[in-house]
Amino acid sequence: MKSTVEHLSPTRVRINVEVPFDELKSDFDRAYRKLAKQVRIPGFRPGKAPARVLESRIGRAPVLDEVVQEAIPAKYLEAVNSGELRTLGRPDFEVTKIEDGESLAFTAEVDVRPEITVPAFGELSVTVDDQEVTDEDVATQLDELRARFGTLTGVQRPAQQGDFVVVDLSATVDGEEVEEAKTTGLSYEIGSGQLVEGIDDALIGAAEGETKTFTTTLVAGEHAGREAEVSVVVNSVKERQLPELDDEFAQLASEFDTLDELKDDLRVRLGRVKKMQQGVQARDKVLEALLASVEVPLPEAVVKGEIEAREHDAVHAFDHDEARFAEWLAEQGQTKEQFDTEVREAAEQAVKTQLVLDAIADAEQLSVSDAELTERIIYQAQRFGVSPDEYVKRAQQSGQLGAIFADVRRGKALASVVRQATVTDAAGNALDLDELFGEAKSTEETAAGTPAESPAGE
């Protein structure tokens, strides 16, 4: 087999392949066996007719078609591997020559990963927020804790922000009742934002037994994106009474004997949370700085695929009804052209990120261990509320296991970049990245495929 590669652009190539017929013997054998099972020839059992007899019955053309269909993908992969090409997406095949008994020639146009020159990671410098825990932070945590131990008491006054009400809800669209929006005896905290937009304004000032109506845009269900008239009946109004902030409360809400001990513990916990937030911020800002420093030609077919996936997700909530989706965009004050622009920008950024991190992973010879892949699968399964086995089964059926592997590898590449960058807080203090992400393992361990795991991979 002979193959040559033409570079059509920095992100696309044409592979020219010519295969002598003597290399296709196994493909012809498979084709004869397959076709023989499909054709009944008197005097022969299914699948047992000799090749010359089969050809005399069905002709040579079906055999050649079957050989071509089988041989081209296999020979394409052979050409890709011999040329050490890093292909992206599916190729476009074209048969350019079939000389029976002599040779088969075809071309394959496919996107490839462009050559990317990344900067010295030590030159990247970002600043993240301070991780100081303030008295206000502790007070907020205490208020949230008190709310958990608060009691609800009925009141004979109009509802206020923060009150709890028990309501009956119903809604109509163009005069027709929306069945899935109907409910009774629903408990709701005014101001929590857990129900439809506009309900908080309608409930404030409403008394027990009063009915309020308002209009809102439905965001889910059959009528998603449509304007609905909502009726809410207030059955009861209750206010939350919070316990006194003292040692007795500390003993009730925690394992501590005094309020000061509880405050100290909250301060320590908040410090850990803020360190984690610093880590996430460092990861995001280093990635932003990295992408800003690199020029990457983007494969248009890959970008197009990303755009189509994002558009599919956007209209999925509207049952893929383009008219309803357009109505929703108009209500959000956005045109279809603006939406398309935003989707393309996001898609291009996502593709650029993947290409850059893949290039770094290759350069640093990063691999993914079974333990790391399993950890990601368990994490994702918990996010979607399914068992790890069920998640793996779904990923296999949708062909997403490779994408999961790639995401873990890209996360490790980004973690490596973050470790080498300069990260300081707002006060100018250099951050201890080992404290944020865990200690990095040795070069020997990394080369062996067991580099340190890091939250930056999440």
From TrEMBL:
Keyword Metal-binding attached: no
Domain PPIase FKBP-type: 162-215
Top-rank lineage group of the source organism: Bacteria
GO molecular function ontology, one term from the record: ribosome binding
Annotated compartments: Cytoplasm
EC number: 5.2.1.8
Region (Disordered): 436-458
SUPFAM superfamilies, A to Z: FKBP-like, Triger factor/SurA peptide-binding domain-like, Trigger factor ribosome-binding domain
Gene Ontology biological process: 'de novo' cotranslational protein folding; cell division; protein transport; protein unfolding
Catalysed reaction, written as an equation: [protein]-peptidylproline (omega=180) = [protein]-peptidylproline (omega=0)
GO CC annotations on file: cytoplasm
Keywords, comma-separated and alphabetical: Cell cycle, Cell division, Chaperone, Cytoplasm, Isomerase, Rotamase
Major place of residence: cytoplasm
Family, as annotated: Belongs to the FKBP-type PPIase family. Tig subfamily.
Swiss-Prot/TrEMBL domain comment: Consists of 3 domains; the N-terminus binds the ribosome, the middle domain has PPIase activity, while the C-terminus has intrinsic chaperone activity on its own.
Function of the protein: Involved in protein export. Acts as a chaperone by maintaining the newly synthesized protein in an open conformation. Functions as a peptidyl-prolyl cis-trans isomerase.
Name listed for the protein in its UniProt record: Trigger factor
Species whose genome carries this gene: Saccharothrix coeruleofusca
Organism placement in taxonomy: Bacteria, Bacillati, Actinomycetota, Actinomycetes, Pseudonocardiales
